[in-house]
Structure formats: structure tokens, C-alpha cells
Amino acid sequence: MTALGPVRVRLASMVQGDADGHQSINLPKAAEAVAQLRRVAQVTGAEDVIHISSDYHRAAVAAGPLTTQWSIVVEAYGTAVTRAVPPEPKPTEQSADA
Question: Mind listing the domains of the chain with CATH numbers?
Fold first, then answer.
């Protein structure tokens, strides 16, 4: 395998939740970030991604008596790789006598 370089994907969203804990939109997930990471690597010519890791960050941005607004960030990292092409054998020199 030949390393093509690092790849990184960042999914971010703002979520507003009410007092009952219901959230207004779908949250980004680590599995979605990893899937996007593989797609980005394939677009750049890679066949696979190795050494995958992901981070999930959630921070309260604003809070009120009935709602809370959250910032959600999911990041995935990895190394794009492709199969190494074996070098073609060089033609051997043959003498004119043979």
C-alpha cells in the first residue's frame, strides 16, 4: 500500500432542543463522518483509508428557560492509501550471438 496523504472531514450543525429534550434536526454521527471520509478519499484516487479516528464535540451555545442551542461537530481523520503498482521488469540485454 502506498500512502497518498491525510484526509479529513468535518460535519457541523446547530441543534436546538426544547425542555422535553426533543431536538429540531438530525445530529451528525461518527459513522456518517467516516463514510464521508471514505468518499472524499475515493474522489482523490485512493482505494482505502487506514488509521481512521473520529472526534465528537458538543458545546452549549445558548440556553434559555425553555430551549438550549447546541453546536455539534464531528470530525474524522485518516490516511488515504492505494495499492502500489509493482515495477515492470526491465528487459534483459541479450548478446547478438545467442
Answer: 2-82 (3.30.110.70)
